[in-house]
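Project outcomes to date are best conveyed with an example. Our students and postdoctoral researchers have been running inverse folding experiments weekly, and each run begins with a structure described purely in C-alpha cells. The record below, which covers 163 residues, was selected by the lab manager from last quarter's runs and is presented without edits.
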C-alpha cells in the first residue's frame, strides 16, 4: 500500500541550498509517497512539477528534490507517486531527472551532478536531443509532446519535398 504521508522525508538546508533526504531505506520499485495534487496551476514555477501537457502541481516538500542526471527516484505523474529508481539508503539525498516531467522549465540551470551522462543544461525535455531523452524514464505527457513534435516535423518535411 502506498504511503500517503511524507513523514519519511526531511528537508536539509546548508548555505541556502536545500536537499530532500530520506529517514528510511527503500528497495527499488518501492512507492515512497504520493505526489500532492491539491494546488494545480497552468504555469510552471520552482515549486511545481508538470503532470500533463498543461497542468503543473505544487508539490510541497517535494519541491526540495534536486535534479540529478543519474537520479534515485522517479516521479510518476500518471499514478501521482514517487518511486525508488534503485535501492536507497537511510539518510541518502533524493533526486529526480527534471526533464522526465518538465517540458520547458521556468528557471533553467547548469547541472554539476558529475555523472557520466550529465546533460549540463537543465531547461526541460524540449531542449534535449532524442538520443539523450531515450536513455531516461519519461512521463507520458513528455513522450506525447515529443511524438506530436515529430508528427509536425514530418508534415514540414513533406511540404518541403513538395515545394
Ligand atoms: Zn547532471
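After processing, the design step wrote out the following sequence:
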Amino acid at each position: 500500500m502506498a504511503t500517503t504521508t511524507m513523514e519519511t522525508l526531511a528537508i536539509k538546508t546548508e548555505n541556502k541550498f536545500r536537499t530532500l533526504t530520506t529517514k528510511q531505506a527503500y528497495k527499488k520499485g518501492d512507492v515512497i509517497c504520493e505526489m500532492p495534487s491539491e494546488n494545480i496551476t497552468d504555469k510552471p514555477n520552482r515549486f511545481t512539477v508538470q503532470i500533463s501537457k498543461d497542468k503543473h502541481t505544487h508539490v510541497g516538500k517535494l519541491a526540495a528534490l534536486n535534479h540529478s542526471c543519474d537520479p534515485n527516484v522517479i516521479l510518476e505523474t500518471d499514478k501521482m507517486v514517487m518511486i525508488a529508481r534503485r535501492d536507497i539508503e537511510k539518510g541518502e539525498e533524493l533526486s529526480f531527472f527534471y526533464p522526465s516531467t518538465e517540458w520547458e522549465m521556468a528557471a533553467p540551470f547548469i547541472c554539476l551532478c558529475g555523472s557520466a551522462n550529465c546533460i549540463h543544461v537543465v531547461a526541460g525535455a524540449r531542449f534535449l536531443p532524442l538520443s539523450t531523452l531515450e536513455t531516461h524514464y519519461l512521463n507520458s505527457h513528455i513522450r506525447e509532446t515529443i511524438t506530436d513534435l515529430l508528427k509536425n516535423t514530418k508534415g514540414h518535411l513533406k511540404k518541403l519535398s513538395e515545394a
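The helical segments are 130-133, 140-162. The pocket of zinc ion is lined by residues 69, 111, 113, 115, 118-119 (CB under 6 Å). The training component of this project remains on track.
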